[in-house]
Design goal:
Helix content: 55-70%
Strand order of the largest sheet: 4-3-2-1-5
Strand content: 15-25%
Number of domains: 3
Oligomer: single chain
Number of helices: 9
Number of strands: 8
Distance between the termini: 83 Å
Length: about 290
Amino acid sequence: MNRYVSIAARALLLIGLLVARSYYHQWLLRWGWNPLPVELLVGFAIFALSANLVMVLLIWLYRKSKGIARGQADNVVSGLQNIYYLLLGLATIVVVLGFLGVAPDELFTSLSIVAAAIAIVSKDFISEIISGMIISFSKEISIGDYIKIGNHKGKIIDLNISKIVFLNEDDDIIYIPNTTVFNSEIINYTRKQIKRVNIEFEVDLKAVKNIEALEADLIETVRDYHEHIQPGSFALKIVDIKKDSVSLKFQYILNQINRELEQDIRRKTVRRVVNYVKKNLNAAASVAAKVTA
């Protein structure tokens, strides 16, 4: 209800400003005041309110058509908000130039000069804005997607005008520049057709008596999660064999993407591998000690 009251108040204020705009000029001249500052401020307020109401309407129509609840956002919602903030910034520049005494017929030229100067001074920031606009309206990544960018893996929680807000697996909030995202290779786990999970680890050769036995042990370790995993999708693969160690990859396919469940299984599997290795190394050491004795 408060939201609708706020929108109604903005609409009434806009109507009041539009009506007053037809009369205040002659009032100010009658009182001997310079009408230019008031015209600039009123014009800015009318533009800001109009743009805001248009943005709110478009977002409301979009959410209604997509069935998105109020308070939730996706790429399109974030993109519309970013466009509004960008237009508001440009309008602010126009008002500042007006206060500096730039005549209307010189405004376009002045804006061109200012835009060129801003582009030179802040080209990196402009690149961030452009990249952010492209990302916001693209279908490659969306808010809520679980992705990997570089060494970061986690969930996108927001797309703003210059950065992507990223929640990693340690629940740390990371801000990644849009240009970095735009120019990086991205793995989008949410869009994967096959929900395959890989757990890679390296163990000492002395700690692995039998690959098949280790595979069976790991499958048994995650028995409590078998209802969430496709039957027959378990596999323990040898990735690389070194002089004293072997790199292994334990794989399985989830019925549906669930990051919390995946982390639980990963945590339990890794702990089991550590205990398995420790147990076998201790056993090997005991055998070696008996032989020596």
